[in-house]
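hi! just following up on the protien thing from before. the input was this:
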Amino acid sequence: MSTRTVIRGGLVITASDEMHADVLIEDGRIAALAASGTPAAESFTAERTMEAAGKYVIPGGVDAHTHMELPFGGTFASDTFETGTRAAAWGGTTTVVDFAVQSVGHSLREGLDAWHAKAEGNCAIDYGFHMIVSDVNQETLKEMDLLVEEGVTSFKQFMAYPGVFYSDDGQILRAMQRSAGNGGLIMMHAENGIAIDVLVEQALARGETDPRFHGEVRKALLEAEATHRAIRLAQVAGAPLYVVHVSAAEAVAELARARDDGLNVFGETCPQYLFLSTDNLAEPDFEGAKYVCSTPLRPKEHQAALWRGLRTNDLQVVSTDHCPFCFTGQKELGRGDFSKIPNGLPGVENRMDLLHQAVVDGHISRRRWIEIACATPARMFGLYPKKGTIAPGADADVVIYDPAAEQVISAGTHHMNVDYSAYEGRRVTGRVETVLSRGTPVITARQYTGHAGHGVYTPRSTCQYLT
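and the predicted 3d structure came back as:
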């Protein structure tokens, strides 16, 4: 039985256009758009009408970097797929791409199957998977081909975390060579983990144990060095490269140089690097532990380079790296030793609002907001135009957004399963009002109307952003 919805009178914003238009949704997809008040728009009929006058009508956000239920440092990220995807919906995100983890000594398939089991039947919104490759060998390389064929088209490697996820340059080169052949995209955590471990050991020996030293040992130069090395390895392999959670001005410069040379090299940053800094890491009474993540928060002066990179398209995507750990009982594992603080911040619910605040503040335009938060992540990871835009044939993942509403971000009102907010007390302008996922309301006038199991696994094609 056909179900139709009309959203009337809003300002429809995509990465390429803005227009006052009515949107017709049928059977979970965008059926048509027409300029508001025209005969074409007046002809739209539906069982359900949503009024959006004075509001924005935008594509649902695509967060291409989340870690639900991730095991790390003897504990687990505190958001499950159920709580994390519900919080994402509250924040106007309708698709997440999470990371399945290969454990050393095990196959990619085992890791992927484990993550399917965690997510299936539990998600409020649609989801896909990247694959963390921790153990490069001949069998793993063959499995990469099979995963690409079934819609897992991106593979993450780590130059950091020796003994856990770390790959050496030879393993990285082999995986890049494989992806050059099968169309996959290598995602790189670019920090020199071997050198960082030396600096951690030396800092602890000096009695420098507070959270702020987490940022001081993970030096910007070691992020830049690893970024440069990853770019050159990708160039040797003839493979595209996507560098995750770029935080340092020096790393942005490496990406810009590579792109100026015409290489298929891409960069992602995250809200924490745009809005937080080492000032947060230095908060007294161990409060700085709340802000421990890797790459680390940088001094405020790095933010200008990140915003500039987003404006010039040297950085293409803003994802969250959502990996929450409660302050009580989890972050506290590192009291007296910053190296034992679980690395990660909550943010999946805050990304769209913080980036709208960036529009209000003049850092980016409205269309660029949608481009870096919806359209480009969808294109980068093979989900476009099913996701990331409002156009006939696209999934009806649609957000009615109130650009004038004010809110204060707080752990007291957020929906993430974590006992603090990284943005506690921050006042922002703009708020999600209603969210449709494939035409089904999951947030309705600031009420949760979704349910676990509505979200479905979404296979992806290969990167659609290559030059």
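The first strand starts at residue 4 and ends at 13.
Residues 260 and 447 are 46 Å apart (CA to CA).
cheers
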